[in-house]
Amino acid sequence: MPTPAERARRRAMMWSLSIAVLMLAGKSLAAWYTGSAAIFSDALESVIHLVATGFSGFSLWYASTPPDQGHPYGHGKIAYFAAAFEGLLIAAAAIVIGWVAIEDLIRGPSLQQLDIGLLIIAALTLTNAALGIYLIRTGRTHNSLVLVSNGQHVLTDMWTSLGVLVGVGLVRLTGVLWLDPVAALLVAANILWTAGRLLRRSLGGLMDRADTNTTRRVLRVLNEAKSDDTIANYHQVRHRRTDDQLWIEYHLLFPGQMSVREAHARSHEVEAALHEAFAKDEVRVTAHLEPRQHGEAHPPDHVEPHDPLYDLSR
User: Fold this and answer.
1) How far apart are CA 66 and CA 71, in angstroms?
2) N or C: which terminus of the chain carries fewer CB neighbours within 10 A?
3) Quick check: 160 pLDDT over 80?
């Protein structure tokens, strides 16, 4: 039975797929009417967007499937692959758009029926603006990187269309034809910038880059537990995010004479505080309980792993 968050994500993705088909049809029609390189670049970007949206839809479904023996941490990492895939497709579109624009600058563009093309692009631009805002809001509300990335791509498509409107509109007003391929080149540059941003974000997720704000919030909860004597101390703190799942690990230290039952109960108090601090996330905590004199409790040949957040926790 899907959760309300999963239903909201699926509904948003269905809207995205449906409108992506509409965008491709409308922009292709406008490009055919006008012969504009700028509008062609917008239509080509919509082809890429439709393919990327289809992959994003698959990723959203796959990420929601439960863990199995082969993937005990679940399948959420595919969200970062989806963002990288979308970024690479956007970059490829930018290269093709730039190539076509340069060819038009060299041989000179041939334009026609600009009024019809401008009306079509204007209507589609407004539609994309509404869709992009909706996708990003839904993605942030339900912590879905797939929807946020898709929404950012939609807004990139919107800004692309807006640039095309300005460029082709200037051609219509001034009669200066070379403004059309110049507008297409500006569109290509904007698309490349968006592609780079998506690729950086996906690489950070695949490399388990720690978010500084998350680190600060986790350490604040642990320091509060230490200050009110719920725990004696802590170390070996780690965390990583997979879409809406936040995985947190740490070692909690307790007085040596405390019973395991009492230490376990206090550990759950800390875990409950973390769930409250990250109420929008699906928090998964792994706690290792140790006596305060943990160095004496370990065998002589024990090697403590590197503690990357040790300095921040003091």
Assistant:
1) 9
2) N
3) no
**Beta-bridge partners for 56:** none
Among all chains, which residue has been given the structure tokens 């950012």?
A: 152
113 Rama class: left (phi>0) / alpha (psi -120 to 50) / beta: left
Q: Residue 159 — left, alpha, or beta (φ > 0 → left; ψ -120 to 50 → alpha)?
A: alpha
- Residue indicated by tokens 């024990």: 302
Q: How far apart are CA 235 and CA 268, in angstroms?
A: 17
Region 220-240: mean pLDDT is 93
- Residue 195 · residue 98 · CB < 8 Å: no
Q: How far, in Å, CA of 205 to CA of 67, rounded? A: 19
Phi-psi category of residue 59: left, alpha or beta, with phi > 0 → left and psi -120 to 50 → alpha: alpha
The residues facing 241 across adjacent strands are: 246
pTM of the predicted protein model: 0.68
